[in-house]
C-alpha cells in the first residue's frame, strides 16, 4: 500500500524556520515526482513546490520562491521542505503528494499543520 | 500568467441531478488538467487526469472533457456522497496551479 507520512509541523513566530519531512512507502520512490501542497484554514488548495524523481529539477510557487527549498533523499525514501523567513500567511496544513504519470497527484498524505503567529 | 478559474463557486442540486463544473486556464495547457474532490475534513482525492481519464476506483458517473483552455467536470447523477468541494489543477508545467474550487451541496 502506498503511504505518505508527513512530520515536522508546529507553532512558530514570523521570521522563523521549519523543516518538514515526508516518509514514503509502498512504491519506488525515486521513480516519481513529488509535490508539497498546502491548505490554509477554510481556504482552497495551493501548490507550493515540486521535485523530479531524481531531484535534479525543482519548482516553486511565486509565493514561496527564495524562502522555501524542496529536496529528497531517495536512499531514505524521504521528501523534505525547508521553510525559512516564515510569514503569517504560510499558516496551513502542508501535504506531500506523489506524482502519477506526470505531475497529477493521485496520492496524498494526511498533512502536518504549520502555524505562524506572534 | 498561470491562472485557473472555476465556475460556479458553489452550487446546490438534488439527488439524481446532472451537475457541470467548468474550469478555464489562462493559457493553453493542452490536456494537462486534473480534477480533485475534497470532502469536509478529508484529503483531496484525484478523480480525473489528462482532462478526461477516470482515475482507478472513481465511479463512472464522473466524467471530464475539454482541452486547451476550457474544461468541464460532469457528475451525471448526483449522489449524497458527492457533497464536496471540487478543484481543477493544471499540471503541464510549474506552477501547478489549482482553481479556487466549487462547493457542491444539496438543495
Note the topology.
The complex is a heterodimer of chains A (118) and B (107).
Chain A: E1 3-7, E2 10-12, E3 18-25, E4 34-39, E5 45-51, E6 58-60, E7 68-73, E8 78-83, E9 92-98, E10 107-108, E11 112-116
Parallel strand pairs in A: 2-11
Antiparallel strand pairs in A: 1-3, 3-8, 4-5, 4-9, 5-6, 7-8, 9-10, 9-11
Chain B: E1 4-7, E2 10-13, E3 19-25, E4 33-38, E5 45-49, E6 53-54, E7 62-67, E8 70-75, E9 84-90, E10 102-106
Parallel strand pairs in B: 2-10
Antiparallel strand pairs in B: 1-3, 3-8, 4-5, 4-9, 5-6, 7-8, 9-10
Give a nutshell description of this structure:
The complex is a heterodimer of chains A (118) and B (107). With 118 residues, chain A is mainly β.
Q: Could you please describe the fold and organization of this structure?
A:
The complex is a heterodimer of chains A (118) and B (107). In chain A, strands 2, 4, 5, 6, 9, 10 and 11 form a seven-stranded mixed sheet that branches. Helices cover 0% and strands 49% of the residues of chain A. Chain A is mainly β. Chain A has strands at 3-7, 10-12, 18-25, 34-39, 45-51, 58-60, 68-73, 78-83, 92-98, 107-108, 112-116. In chain A, strand 9 (92-98) and strand 10 (107-108) form a beta hairpin. Chain A is built from no helices and eleven strands. The mean pLDDT of chain B is 96. Chain B is an all-beta fold and 107 residues long. Chain B has strands at residues 4-7, 10-13, 19-25, 33-38, 45-49, 53-54, 62-67, 70-75, 84-90, 102-106. In chain B, a hairpin with a 6-residue loop joins strand 4 (33-38) and strand 5 (45-49). A six-stranded mixed sheet of chain B has the order 2-10-9-4-5-6, with no helix packed on it. Chain B has no helices and ten strands. Classes of the chains: A mainly beta (118), B mainly beta (107). The A-B interface holds A 35, 37, 44-47, 50, 59-62, 95, 100-106, 108-111 and B 32, 34, 36, 38, 43-46, 49-50, 55, 85, 87, 89, 91, 94-101.
Amino acid at each position: 500500500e502506498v503511504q505518505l507520512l508527513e512530520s515536522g509541523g508546529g507553532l512558530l513566530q514570523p521570521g522563523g524556520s521549519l523543516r518538514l519531512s515526508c516518509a514514503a512507502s509502498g512504491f519506488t520512490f525515486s521513480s516519481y515526482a513529488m509535490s508539497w501542497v498546502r491548505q490554509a484554514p477554510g481556504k482552497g488548495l495551493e501548490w507550493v513546490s515540486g521535485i523530479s524523481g531524481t531531484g535534479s529539477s525543482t519548482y516553486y510557487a511565486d509565493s514561496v520562491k527564495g524562502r522555501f527549498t524542496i529536496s529528497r533523499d531517495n536512499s531514505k525514501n524521504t521528501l523534505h521542505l525547508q521553510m525559512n523567513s516564515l510569514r503569517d500567511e504560510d499558516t496551513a496544513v502542508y501535504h506531500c503528494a506523489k506524482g502519477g504519470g506526470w505531475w497529477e497527484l493521485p496520492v496524498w498524505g494526511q498533512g502536518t499543520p504549520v502555524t505562524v503567529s506572534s | 500568467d498561470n491562472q485557473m478559474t472555476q465556475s460556479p463557486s458553489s452550487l446546490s442540486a438534488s439527488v439524481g441531478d446532472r451537475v457541470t463544473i467548468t474550469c478555464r486556464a489562462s493559457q493553453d495547457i493542452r490536456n494537462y488538467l486534473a480534477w480533485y474532490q475534497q470532502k469536509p475534513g478529508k484529503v483531496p482525492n484525484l478523480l480525473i487526469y489528462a482532462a478526461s481519464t477516470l482515475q482507478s476506483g472513481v465511479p463512472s458517473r464522473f466524467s471530464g472533457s475539454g482541452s486547451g483552455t476550457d474544461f468541464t467536470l460532469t457528475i451525471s447523477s448526483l449522489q449524497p456522497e458527492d457533497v464536496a468541494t471540487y478543484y481543477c489543477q493544471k499540471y503541464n508545467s510549474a506552477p501547478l496551479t489549482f482553481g479556487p474550487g466549487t462547493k457542491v451541496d444539496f438543495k
